[in-house]
Fold this sequence. Notes:
Two copies of one chain form a homodimer. In chain A, 0% of the residues lie in helices and 50% in strands. Chain A is mostly beta strands. Chain A has a five-stranded antiparallel sheet, with no helix packed on it. A three-stranded antiparallel sheet of chain A has the order 6-5-8, with no helix packed on it. Chain A starts with a strand and ends with a strand. The model of chain A has no long low-confidence stretch (mean pLDDT 95). The A-B interface holds A 1-8, 22-23, 25-28, 30, 51, 53, 55, 57, 65, 68, 72-82, 86, 102, 104, 106-108 and B 1-8, 22-23, 25-28, 30, 51, 53, 55, 57, 65, 68, 72-82, 86, 102, 104, 106-108.
Amino acid sequence: MKPENLFTGIPAELSEELLTTIHRGDGVRIERIVSQGQSSPQGFWYNQDENEWIIVLEGSAAIEFEEGTEVLELHRGSYLNIPAHVRHRVAWTDPHQKTVWLAIHYRT
Amino acid sequence: MKPENLFTGIPAELSEELLTTIHRGDGVRIERIVSQGQSSPQGFWYNQDENEWIIVLEGSAAIEFEEGTEVLELHRGSYLNIPAHVRHRVAWTDPHQKTVWLAIHYRT
């Protein structure tokens, strides 16, 4: 059993979001997401079959929901639970630095 | 839906480890652990019914396993999966700063 590190293995340039599944267990999938300036296309909404608990560990980003007018800004340490089928999109991610997220996907 | 922050609400002085369940879902429990200098008692081994995936987000610590001689040092970003019933203990945590862990407990 050897620890790995979440902040290693991140390419200097990211042409698109980098999604890496770092652990899979019974009913749970842990994913690292690295973004820099990417956002969801206008009018696109994620509609996921699983619940997703997310935390921003570096950088900053914002999420918005189809039902609601508020854009939620996320900074280092911000976390949020997004229940399955709650339609949402990434409004923006910081273009000047990497945003590193941890996402815990778990079944309903 | 409002984001909360993992690094807020940490008392300046910690006489013992601070364990806070920050999210509960189907088959998953997400816990924040804050330590400063605490370790498991000598000869004590955790023997948990659930799997536990852990990551250190601030500070540093070390974990050791009953089966094995190695003490695994963990720093910012270090993560590790500890399967259920793998006996382990916290060998040390940094006495000079807070160590903030995130632990994902999930069923077998």
